[in-house]
Amino acid sequence: MRKNIVAGNWKMNKTYQDAQALVSEIDNMVRDEVTHENVEVIVTPPFPFLNSISKLIQGNSRMHLAAQDVSAHESGAYTGEVSAAMLKSVGVEYVLVGHSERRQYHHEDADLLLKKMKAALAQGIKPIFCCGEPLEVREAEDHFKYVAQQLRETVAHLSNEEFDQVVIAYEPIWAIGTGKTASSAQAQEMHASIREELSSIFDAQAAYNKTILYGGSANPGNAKELFSQPDVDGGLIGGASLKSRDFTDIIKSF
Ligand code: PGA
User: Fold this and answer.
1) Hey, which of 167, 170, 171 would you mutate to test ligand 1's pocket, going by the most ligand atoms within 8 Å of its Cβ?
2) What is the DSSP string of 226-251?
3) What are the extents of the domains in the chain?
């Protein structure tokens, strides 16, 4: 059975104190309210809070920790970078790779994203690989081809064993932080197309088993409809993951 995941991407938000409070609330609400067995909850705080949050969620088997970025390098003279081994040493299990904000503001290209995934995988950290088209590509109706190409130039270069560890997140850029969600039909048709593409790169079973998340203005009001689609296996949640009530309600939408 395919794993369902709801991951909260906190981006550059919260102080240490706010982050502790938020994760404690989520931890409690998940314990008390989430009954669905097959759902993993991931929180993705900024680097300085990973260690303490790792300890906070340790006793809750549903809660998992992700980092927002990882260096492509193993170690050494790379000022400001954080290695996969460092993340591993504080209990990080997942890492975001290829988020559109990193691609756009930090000019991360396919070559670098592949290196980052490899660096994470070498430490046993699972990449959450983000893909998705900008508005002009959607308007030109080139979105299926565009996203397929993003997969071809990155995950296609992983081995079968490496690919097994990857989670895919489809995040149309025009829906991120805009309040404009993809309709459930738009999400479904893209997720099905991604699965089809993965099936031709790897094989049908690997593609069938792959968890594919939707991201982009998901909220408690639209999550149920999105998650009810056969190829939507959960969400990567930005804004709504900063409020424990909203985030938990999204988790409960399965
Ligand atoms: P959003 O962000 O939910 O605020 O649109 C999603 C994301 O960037 O992962």
Assistant:
1) 171
2) HHTSTT--EEEESGGGGSHHHHHHHH
3) 4-251
SS3 content of the chain, % helix, strand, coil (to 5): 45, 15, 35
Whether 250 and 242 have beta carbons less than 8 Å apart is answered as no
Q: pLDDT per residue over 4-32, tens digit each?
A: 999 999 999 999 999 999 999 999 999 99
Tens digits of per-residue pLDDT, 113-160? 999 999 999 999 999 999 999 999 999 999 999 999 999 999 999 999
Task: Tell how far the Cα of 75 is from the centroid of ligand 1, in angstroms.
Answer: 30
Whether the predicted model's global pTM rises above the 0.70 cut: yes
Cβ–ligand 1 distance for 246 under 6 Å, the answer no
53-57: which pairs have CB atoms within 8 A and are 24 or more residues apart?
Answer: 53/19, 53/20, 53/23, 54/90, 54/91, 54/92, 55/91, 56/20, 56/23, 56/24, 56/27, 57/23, 57/27
Q: Which protein residue's CA is at the shortest distance from atom 1 of ligand 1?
A: 238
* Domain 4-251, architecture per CATH: Alpha-Beta Barrel (3.20)
